[in-house]
């Protein structure tokens, strides 16, 4: 069996040490695709099982998918839900990028339903977990766009885990018409409005796919299926399907609302969660509040504190612009993070002093940061402060994309030099100093 380490460094050199960066023991191959292979791994320090997704930089760059990989990382790091596969860390070498993720011991949901349809109660349990996680993603501006049983995994407790956010869209990809336009998804699960090629609502597309998944769970086969692809698309476009005779009346009614070919009248996530069929034995999921990649926990003083995951986020492993040796990423803001021994209050006071000297206005002040605007509103800058340890804090400066050149010049040449005394010199800036 060839390990990821052997493949990366050469079997002869690495055969005696099948470890990735000395942190993870890499084991058997779990699956593979066109651009990546997934291995079982073990955290050397804790013994915890993990899944390690090894992505070939050469293949990704050749296929023009570098932006997709960076977006997948950006998306996964902001999601912390019990029914979403968690991303622990990203590591990179010259030729590969490694996603270190939560290991789903139970495998794919697809392999279970392929052996036979589920009972209505079991189908409901998995559908509840699916919709709860999808609603969580939507509330954070993330739309999966490729939901199907193959992308739904099961953990050791047989609970569902949504995975594979490679085709996901985020809020800033929405066009001026308020819709997404990229054609994507798996044929049998794709929504009719995507086939129409007129733009679509990412949330409603995911709901359609959830409806197809629920049908597959209770029926054991697809609602729209044909050996001829165009014939199948016609059925999808018209919303033509029949429920199996063993489904209950409430479930049939529910399925027709989920698989409504008209996205305007299709049931919403909120309506789903209030439906009588869905509500039976429903248990609310407990999850962390994650804002823009940070697991936020309020301290007594109202400051934001960082956990171990966030320390990883500040490491070079999460510097997405460097994964492919590029100078930028696909986000609409640019920012820098610094470590300081100063108190959050002192940092904000100093920023306010410098801003006043440079005729920059503080338009909003909170315990965790500031919002600043340039003259004539030519740029907007955000300062966020997070508690790292009892002695250290991290402050992040981000520029909104209004007049980028003007904002960058004011920050780089006028504001930043005057704030260097705030930066902890032993570690200097964590990123971008």
Describe, in plain words, how this protein is organized in 3D.
- It catalyses: L-threonyl-[protein] + ATP = O-phospho-L-threonyl-[protein] + ADP + H(+); L-seryl-[protein] + ATP = O-phospho-L-seryl-[protein] + ADP + H(+).
- Keywords: ATP-binding, Kinase, Manganese, Membrane, Nucleotide-binding, Serine/threonine-protein kinase, Transferase, Transmembrane, Transmembrane helix.
- Belongs to the protein kinase superfamily. CAMK Ser/Thr protein kinase family. SNF1 subfamily.
- Its EC number is 2.7.11.1.
- Its cofactor is Mn(2+).
- It is a single chain.
- The chain has three domains: 99 residues, 2-Layer Sandwich (Phosphorylase Kinase, domain 1), CATH 3.30.200.20; 173 residues, Transferase(Phosphotransferase) domain 1 (Transferase(Phosphotransferase), domain 1), CATH 1.10.510; 91 residues, Kinase associated domain 1, KA1 (TATA-Binding Protein, 2-Layer Sandwich), CATH 3.30.310.
- It starts with a helix and ends in a 14-residue tail after the last helix.
- Helix 6 packs antiparallel against helix 8.
- The chain is an alpha+beta fold and 433 residues long.
- Helices cover 33% and strands 22% of the residues.
- The strands form five sheets. Strands 14, 15, 16, 17, 18, 19 and 20 form a seven-stranded mixed β-sheet that branches. A six-stranded antiparallel β-sheet has the order 1-2-3-4-6-5.
- The C terminus is likely disordered.
């Amino acid at each position: 069996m060839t390990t990821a380490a052997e493949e990366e460094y050469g079997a002869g050199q690495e055969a005696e040490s099948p470890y990735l960066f000395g942190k993870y023991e890499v084991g058997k191959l779990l699956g593979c695709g066109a651009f990546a292979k997934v291995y079982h791994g073990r955290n050397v320090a804790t013994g915890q099982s993990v899944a390690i997704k090894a992505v070939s930089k050469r293949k990704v760059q050749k296929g023009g998918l570098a932006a997709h990989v960076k977006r997948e990382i950006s998306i996964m790091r902001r999601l912390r839900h019990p029914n979403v596969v968690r991303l622990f860390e990203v590591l990179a070498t010259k030729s590969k990028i490694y996603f270190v993720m939560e290991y789903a011991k139970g495998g794919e949901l697809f392999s279970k339903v392929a052996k036979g349809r589920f009972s209505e109660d079991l189908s409901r349990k998995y559908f509840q977990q699916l919709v709860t996680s999808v609603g969580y993603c939507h509330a954070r501006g993330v739309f999966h766009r490729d939901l199907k049983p193959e992308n739904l995994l099961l953990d050791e407790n047989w609970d569902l885990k949504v995975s594979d956010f490679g085709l996901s869209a985020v809020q800033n990809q929405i066009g001026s018409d308020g819709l997404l336009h990229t054609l994507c998804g798996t044929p049998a699960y794709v929504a009719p409005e995507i086939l129409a090629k007129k733009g679509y609502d990412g949330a409603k597309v995911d709901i359609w796919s959830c409806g197809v998944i629920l049908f597959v769970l209770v029926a054991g086969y697809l609602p729209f299926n044909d050996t001829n692809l165009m014939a199948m698309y016609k059925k999808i476009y018209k919303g033509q399907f029949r429920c199996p005779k063993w489904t209950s009346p409430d479930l049939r009614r529910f399925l027709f609302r989920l698989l409504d070919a008209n996205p305007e009248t299709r049931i919403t996530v909120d309506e789903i969660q209030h439906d009588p069929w869905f509500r039976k034995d429903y248990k609310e999921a407990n999850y962390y509040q994650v804002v823009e990649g940070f697991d936020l926990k309020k301290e007594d003083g109202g400051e934001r504190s960082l956990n171990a995951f966030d320390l990883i986020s500040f490491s070079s492993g999460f510097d997405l612009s460097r994964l492919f040796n590029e100078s930028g990423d696909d986000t609409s803001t640019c920012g820098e993070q610094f470590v300081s021994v100063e108190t959050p209050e002192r940092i904000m006071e100093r920023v306010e002093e410098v801003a006043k000297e440079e005729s920059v206005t503080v338009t909003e002040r909170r315990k965790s940061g500031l919002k600043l605007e340039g003259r004539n509103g030519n740029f907007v800058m955000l300062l966020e402060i997070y508690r790292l340890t009892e002695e250290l804090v991290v402050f992040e400066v981000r520029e909104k994309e209004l007049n980028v050149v003007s904002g960058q010049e004011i920050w780089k040449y006028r504001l930043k030099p005057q704030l260097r005394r705030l930066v902890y010199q032993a570690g200097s800036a964590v990123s971008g100093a």
